[in-house]
Design a protein that fits this description.
Elements lengths: L1 E6 L7 H10 L2 E7 L3 H13 L4 E5 L11 H11 L5 E8 L6 H18 L3 E6 L2 H11 L4 E3 L6 H9 L3 E4 L7 H9 L5 E3 L6 E2 L2 E2 L5 H12 L3 H16 L2
Parallel strand pairs: 1-2, 2-3, 3-4, 4-5, 5-6, 6-7, 7-8
Antiparallel strand pairs: 9-10
């Protein structure tokens, strides 16, 4: 059994087909993540359509932040967050065109919502791992996953010391920093995901590809896929409260 802990289901064209393929591949649950008001609405709708299989996480991706939509989006997230298993995808991206002070302001407000609602957080933190960690620590959140982690081992150790987790994707096949992080992190701090429909090796991914993630983790860890599947499924259940 596998759980895809991070999928952009609103961006998958043939979603019903993708869900059927995931079930056939042994995927027992998918956490759909939102990035804007529209994608959040779609994720919430899919969670209603596939109860007990698709679970909603709503957020406001740093790439999508626009000054004119900040208040509306944050108000939407605040109202709907209690119906979700997590806040996400949220965070910082210091390679994005959105100004850093605005990113930080939005991120802090979102973390306050998660803390108040006692929800775990799914983090995007490209070129901003240390800053994101600091803000998450200051928010007092107990559960956070640093999605597709590619930062330094020194920061990763601080993430682990704080009790937080990281997630693994099919990018393990070609990303040395991602592979190094997954090799370093203990299995009980790993979630697996696809970030679908991200393209890996020339083909858009779907949640069924989380099996590939588990195989790659097993190869790196020197563990059978059965153990990786069992432990990461347990990790996801505990993290998201499934």
């Amino acid at each position: 059994m596998f759980i895809d802990g991070h999928a952009h289901l609103d961006e998958i064209d043939k979603i019903d087909e993708a869900i059927s393929q995931a079930e056939a591949a042994g995927v027992v649950a998918i956490v759909g993540v939102g990035t804007t008001i529209d994608s959040n609405r779609t994720i919430l709708s899919l969670a209603q359509k596939y109860p007990g299989y698709v679970y909603a996480a709503i957020g406001y991706h740093p790439w999508e932040i626009k000054p004119e939509t900040v208040d509306e989006t944050l108000e939407f997230v605040a109202k709907q967050l209690t119906a979700c298993v997590a806040l996400g995808e949220v965070g910082l991206d210091y390679k994005a065109k959105v100004k850093k002070p605005l990113q930080r302001e939005v991120f802090v407000r979102l973390l306050e919502m998660a803390s108040h609602a006692r929800k775990p957080v799914i983090l995007h933190c490209r070129f901003s791992h240390e800053r994101a960690l600091k803000l998450v620590q200051e928010s007092g959140l107990e559960k956070a996953v640093f999605h597709w982690y590619t930062g330094s081992i020194e920061i990763l150790q601080r993430i682990l010391d704080q009790g937080y987790s990281i997630s693994a994707t099919p990018a393990l096949a070609y990303s040395p920093p991602h592979e190094e992080a997954v090799r370093y992190a203990p299995l009980d701090r790993l979630l697996i995901e696809t970030d679908s429909p991200v393209d890996y090796g020339g083909r858009p991914s779907t949640p069924a590809d989380v099996r590939q993630t588990a195989q790659l983790v097993g190869r790196i860890k020197g563990e059978p896929i059965q153990k990786v599947a069992q432990k990461t499924t347990q990790n996801a259940q505990q993290f998201f409260g499934l």
